[in-house]
Structure to design on (646 residues):
């Protein structure tokens, strides 16, 4: 599975960071999905080489502008590229009338249908063929959600030892069993595929959260997750200074949660623009966020940067692509 | 007067060009104005060093997405920067309910008031202290306008020859006359300031058009204009191929008009993404647009690029800043 960050700043952009959006896809898949779509996301897609034509679904965590103002432009551009396939949008309910209002005022007509899915109906919807998607409600000053993406199908390996022990020689029968099909041998023996397949590995699972001041709301979801992508808008010190109004997490809050939940990979994002990429002149730096998180979390920790692409291996290890 | 281009692509962005927006201001003024606000304009403003806090007014030519989808994000960012001064928005009427719909859905509350001006009321509105603004209706497939910006106040120079000939010595009296005030001399003579001021120079005037397939609609406005900024989406050949549906201009169409109108400076913008910045592999290039325009126009011609800043001197010459 792959996650590519398209924007990692909160509220307003910085010179190096757009506002929130991230692409998710199964490794090697042509189609991909988008979680959140801040203004400028389509510009980042050009740089990432991700086409709005092969975008299968958009998942919006919440309706603050820094998570959804790029949507009308992306829809328009997909139209100009002559997209014809339906595009699924999973989002809090008020998004649909807002987009329809924008489309009417700007006379935007799309050559493809929009398939709207209310978040509450997501568990019954079959949105992606390769990934099961679930939503978990978070705590923020507007209705807000996290999405988890879990591999729907995990490849099975043959238990070759057992096949050989049973006198079943390598051949077309092995292929049938690997496909999960029961087989009747020429000698009349009936083989149940399941008996000759090694136990499946755990399906990979990634959680991408929206804005949230209570990471523990993800406790159930995180139990079997390999990766948690979560906002860490500030350090704890600044969070205390700012007060509880904005309802964001600190690095410490998220890191402690990820450590307790046993999540192996934690990627922080959605940084307040007050944190500079490079420390200097006594200004606040993203190093402060990283340092604070490391104090509470022993797993693989990363701070997302725009256009960073991560690959989650079948071994559950998250690696920054191109490194 | 200064014009800075913030986006010069039409419809969709390219790797080097955002979609339409341009900043206008009197040279040296702190406050500035924005004409159109495509998605990503606020990112360009960061690079241009133009603050949403010192933005005085926004003029929207028409409501196609590639001219206005950056507006909600810019308004939000100005809010986060604690802007308190009212922001004037001049736009076709359906923009206001659209923005209000977006603000409601995304719970965007601004710490400053929006002062909406319907384009039809612009001639009665005193939008900018330093520039008179007028709107001219264009021909496009949605209600669309051009805005002209004319210096409201032109400095006056003393007619020192006449003052000396009248025996009026250099002193405080000269200052009074320069300020346009009539003076009574100690000998009882009454001086009318106007009689001792050199004729004012022509106020500088810039026209920035929206999308338009009939440049001649600007004939009246262009008569005393120093600069015309106008879309030249394609060459004439491509315009013929595409057909009249999109209602855009070709380079030839605009250049011929500017030549006939006697406009001294012509800046083309809003280029179809099919034109590459650098020619190669037989692809269409912006050189084609430039060449076509030069065939019909003998004045100062420029093709706008993102972040290019032009200065219009008191001599009526338009110069690319930093060159």
């Amino acid at each position: 599975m792959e996650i590519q960050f398209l924007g990692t700043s909160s509220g307003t952009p910085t010179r190096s960071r757009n506002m929130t959006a991230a692409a998710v896809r199964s490794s090697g898949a042509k189609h991909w999905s988008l979680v959140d779509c801040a203004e400028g996301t389509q510009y980042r897609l050009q740089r990432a080489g991700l086409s709005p034509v092969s975008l299968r679904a958009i998942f919006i965590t919440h309706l603050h502008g820094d998570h959804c103002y790029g949507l009308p432009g992306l829809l328009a551009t997909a139209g100009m590229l002559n997209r014809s396939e339906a595009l699924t949008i999973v989002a809090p309910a008020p998004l649909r009338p807002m987009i329809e209002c924008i489309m009417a005022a700007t006379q935007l007509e799309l050559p493809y249908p929009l398939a709207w899915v209310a978040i509450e109906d997501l568990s019954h919807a079959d949105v992606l063929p390769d990934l099961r998607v679930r939503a978990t409600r978070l705590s923020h000053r507007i209705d807000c959600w996290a999405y988890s993406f879990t591999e729907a199908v995990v490849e099975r390996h043959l238990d070759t030892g057992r096949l050989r022990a049973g006198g079943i020689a390598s051949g077309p029968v092995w292929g049938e069993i690997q496909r999960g099909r029961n087989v009747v041998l020429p000698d009349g023996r009936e083989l149940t595929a399941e008996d000759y397949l090694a136990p499946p590995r755990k399906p990979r699972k990634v959680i991408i959260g929206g804005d949230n001041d209570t990471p523990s709301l993800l406790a159930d979801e995180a139990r079997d997750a390999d990766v948690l992508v979560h906002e860490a808008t500030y350090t704890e010190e600044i969070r205390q200074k700012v007060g509880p109004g904005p309802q964001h997490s600190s690095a410490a809050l998220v890191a402690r949660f990820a450590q307790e939940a046993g999540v192996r990979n934690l990627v922080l994002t959605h940084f307040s623009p007050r944190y500079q990429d490079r420390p200097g002149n006594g200004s606040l730096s993203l190093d402060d966020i990283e340092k604070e998180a490391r104090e509470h979390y022993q797993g693989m920790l990363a701070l997302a940067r725009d256009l960073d692409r991560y690959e989650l291996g079948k071994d559950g290890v998250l690696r920054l692509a191109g490194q």
